[in-house]
Amino acid sequence: MQNAHIRHLFGLQRIALVVGLLLTLSVKTSAQQNLNMLEHDAKPYYFGITLATNQSFYKLSHSKRFLATDSINVAEPLKTFGFNLGLLANARLSEHFDLRINPQLVFASKNLYYSETYGETPTTTKNIESILVSFPLQVKFKSDRIGNLRVYTIAGLKYDFDLASNARAKRAEELVKVKSGDYGFELGAGFEFYFESFIFSPEFKISNGLGNVHAPDKNLRYSNVIDQLHSRMLVFSIHLEG
Hints:
alpha+beta, 9-stranded antiparallel sheet, 3-stranded antiparallel sheet, 15% helix, Beta-barrel_OMP_2, Probable protein-translocating porin PorT
């Protein structure tokens, strides 16, 4: 698990390096460039598509039964990678503020790791697959344009519906059940690179759930040691806007 986590960190560092190089090249050449898509800044609204990768996990709090049991001595979340596909609609509020809707289909896996004192398998990983339909509503604050570059930040709320939720599953031997609905907040920042016919926007954001998605079931031993599960997600997105 440690080697996988190190590989994930190197992957994020490579992404950050590419974005940094694009930013440096854009700033150095902005004085020599023609300004692209000048009419775009006055558009009342525009649309786009989103391609993204995510790192997701649960923030886990243990129940009182975890301290009382002697069979399960470790229960902790694992970080895993997934991807997002989405659409984007952006409405201009003022020179520096926009209202943005970015519905997405999110493929994520928030797994749980268990270590047991007894039994044939001392360690167990419970795979909790999620297919989320996410509805974020965000306010976007934009900087002044620097040549063909603009920097922005976002903040907003979201609602997620898990199409793969197992909360009502009847056959759930030794599973951990999760609810289908969740809500939360999103914070992020990104860059807009203006090309001749489109805008290329790399963006980093955190997307955290505020609701407890754990669906407790006293008959499930791996669920009994958990009190609450809150979703956590780090997302790197590429928006292509026109």
